[in-house]
Give the backbone structure.
Amino acid sequence: MNERKFDSTPEIQILEIERDSIKFKLSNVDTSFANALRRIMIAEVPTMAIDLVEFEVNTSILNDEFLAHRLGLIPLTSSSVDEFRYTRDCDCELDDPCGKCSVILNLDVWNKSSGDQSMDRNAKTDAETQLVTSDHLKSADPRVTPVHSMDDDQDDTSHKILIAKLGPDQRLKFKAIAKKGFGQEHAKWSPVCVATYRFVPKIKISYQSPNSEKTQSAYSKIVDSCPARVFKMNQDRIEIENEDRCFFCEECTKKANELDAGINIAIESEPNTFVFSVESTGALKPTEIVLSALRILKEKLRAIHGRLPEDNDLIR
Amino acid sequence: MIRLPEHTVNLPEPFESFLLPEGTKKITIEPDERTPNSVTCIIEKETHTIGNLLRMKLLEDPNVLFAGYKVPHPLEHKVVLRVQTQNSDPTTAIKQSLDSLIKDCDLLEKQFKEKTKHDL
Ligand code: SF4
Ligand SMILES: [Zn+2]
């Protein structure tokens, strides 16, 4: 383990930003910091999600609780989550939530197709089944809507989230109330699908004996032993082609030792450096998630700092 | 909203892990009677996130002789941090560590904003 200095300067380097994912390199911090950031992104970054559902009509084959759970898991656009309060901090009544802490989404879908009443199963076609999707949820607040509608201009149902399928004459009508929360309370509020970090590999190859026929065949065996295809042969040497792909399985090291061909491969990781990959559910932009996590971490630390007793209170 | 009568279930409320009940202190500090310059610091409603972060930062401080933490039980949502220093007030050491971490967060936030300003 590398000794870190108390006041070394951390660094962030963006590797890749997509619409719903980000990769960045965090260096010069301790593992505990990387881990804190990861844990906060998963469990403590607030978003909006459906929390209460009042069913008026449900003649579908799915029961209320089941549907409510499905609804909770639909990501809602939460970029304005900071403008909302937690219901527990709000001064409205619990059974009458206000617009400062919650958003109401209504849905009413009635499959009016009468259906073929004959008992002939083959006469019933799929066309009678109606899909209820997240697109049917009508939000009272444009800031908080189901995520798919962000960039969907074509009428493609595959982008929408399926809630239920209604048979002939079945109906679904309810009022859903979305609230602010974070992943620690329930995973539906977590803004990330994936938030992980990995170490940056450093591969060192040292040759101890001169080239020969024997070493040549051993080298190509070592190259083939790597499941991530990190190496390639370059004339009579092993070349590192895709260092980033290495996942520390040590197969190459084992092979090199086993073949005893005068070659040594050491797999190390760059000290205090982490490559994060964060994938958003769509509720927040990936950059918003990282920023929010950094802010929350800072706030937590500040809160602890502020509540510590004054210096020398304890020295007696 | 349907709620079961309280006595029928002993499932802990989901908010118990982060909501500080009214009248509870976030931090309690107990000086150790037997060893000099050492305290046990109990931080309510925090997890390994803060516990481990703070411990590792304290260990980077050359003035800190001992820093360790535990989460006593998975259903007790608190972190117990023990710090012993060479010759100063351990709470000052904790504060310095917090300051250093806050500085790191600030710096990273600035860097991140600067480097992603075109994508935000
Ligand atoms: S450790 Fe595994 S993945 Fe990495 S280079 Fe060796 S064989 Fe390939
Ligand atoms: Zn309210």
About this structure: Helices of chain A lie at 31-43, 64-72, 213-225, 251-259, 286-307. Residues 47-189 of chain A form a domain with the RNA Polymerase Alpha Subunit; Chain A, domain 2 fold (CATH 2.170.120.12). Chain A touches chain B through 54 residues (CB under 8 Å).
